[in-house]
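User: Can you model how 6-phosphogluconic acid sits in this protein?
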Amino acid sequence: MNKVIFIIGVSGSGKSTIGKLLAEDLHIPFFDGDDFHPESNVLKMSKGYALNDDDRFGWLQTLNNLAKKELKSNSCIIVCSALKKNYRHILNEGIKNSTKWVFLQGSFDQITDRINKRDDHFMSSELLQSQFDTLEKPTEAITIDINLSPKKIVENVINQLQDKSEFGLFGLGVMGKSLCRNLANNGFKISMFNRHVAGVEEDVAKNFKSEFSELSNASAFDDISVFVNSLQTPRKIMLMVNAGKTIDYVIENLLPHLSENDILIDGGNSNYKKTKKRNEYLKTKGIHFIGTGVSGGEEGALKGPSIMPSGNKEAYKQVQPYLEKISAKDKNGLPCCIYVGPEGSGQFIKMVHNGVEYVEMQLLAEVSTILKAMGQNLDAISSTLESWKDTASSYLLEITTAIFKKKEGDDWLVNKILDKAGNKGTGNWTTIASAELGVPSTLIASALFSRYVTFYKDERVLLSKNFEKQTVSELNITTNEVLEAYQFARIINHYQGFKLIIEASNKSSWNLNISEIARIWTNGCIIRSTLMEDLVDAFKETTNFLTNVEIIEKLNQYKPSTKKVISQCVLNDLTTPALSEAIQFLNGITTAYASANVIQAQRDYFGAHTYQRLDDPSGKSHHTNWN
Ligand code: 6PG
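Assistant: Here's the modeled complex, given as structure tokens:
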């Protein structure tokens, strides 16, 4: 359908430049309204008089007639200041459904500055001020900031004229769907894509769109090229597909349809090293890649997840408004979304988030083992955990409290679940990264390996017959002591997790802001907790929170209970590896002279690996012939 595009704004806002460029790009005629003034107006203006509304009336009608004439055969662009609503009314007369309005918006100072830079143009500041006074800002126009380059302005106008979507979501699994609804609920015009697999995944996007009213303005596709073409350029496409090879496959499928400077956001739990490689690869194709951690599960994705984007900062700025808007907000209303850093740093911290998550989950499982051994049934355990909310509030505590309440028939549902813990790999990667970076993330490794132990179900059943568990005494502990041991281990868990992030940041020169990372984990994500809130402030003072007076006090307060709980668990054959590891770690990291002297002597003995001496401050290597 033919359209007349009126480009409006005060003198000096760049209407003619933009109008001509736009006309060239759209291959349609361009008309400068000033060329259509009747002679009487031209004469008046040449004498320096301002036109009044009567003078303008005939002229605006001429432009309206011009628009009507052009519409019969083609679209066109007409440039005209049209500052008042009733001027626009005349221009629109009889063609309301065929007009589009583009308003070039700038401040008085910006325009003055521009006019002063032009050799061929003079306008007194009084005259310009009178234009600003006259201006009645249009409400339904495409409004563009004149600060952008002409090329960007034209690109922007074309995108908006074509009513293309601002943001694309690729992959409508559980998380993808929730993010689509979140984006749409926040007023964004989105395009959604899900592949077509005959008999398996058919019309997924279309059916999803029809299910939720908030998606009425969203576009649904199962054809990649049509999906990509439905997006404004530079395109912003978030990939919500399975991490691993699928991402590479999707990237290859998308590439032929993308244009330079388009942006792909990987929102899956991808390996950070792969993200770095994809970043480099896509750079060679002129495409930006934003590796982004997203935490919060299905509900978080819908209501506001914690978002951890990384990669090219300039490209991130273009997706920032979308990601910040859909993210959870912290207690001060700030988005739980920050630009984390370069390369795959966003996915690195999400990986560590998951490592910490593994431990928090494991600790709650161990706590439930202890409470059960203390004679509590699951309802009682649930009540105990509920009562811990005041001191140890966290999302995982909350859901575990609810889990222990859930019954199916006469029994608790959790009792009917096979005791084999699954995993999708992030705990594994965190442990590998710790080993590679030389960071002692002992709790994460312990939580991961505990899951692996559970996986050997048949062997466990078999061996349980050979090694009977012995209860030597009634568990001589209180629930408060268990709570303190739990809190103790959680602090160590967070210490180790953040230590891993700090070391990675130093090694890769990522320059990560640790306090901000803690802040974006205070809401929306799985490991949100009051402890995390405390750490935001602690990290403002130091990156080593074991030097923070309040944390030191807490650990010293909790330590006696922790020792008691763990020794009782050992005596009674209860499996509590993460709790035990926590105290071992604190003992290790706070031992001024460790037993590593013995290790060094052994290494030197059998392999001449040498050692350094305490009485030789030069740090020189020494070797002894031990025989
Ligand atoms: C989150 C979760 C999420 C997912 C994990 C589960 O932050 O929203 O961590 O990413 O639940 O992938 O991981 P496992 O399957 O390895 O336990």
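A couple of observations from the model: The domain at 4-161 is CATH 3.40.50.300 (Rossmann fold). The radius of gyration is 33 Å.
User: Helpful, thanks.
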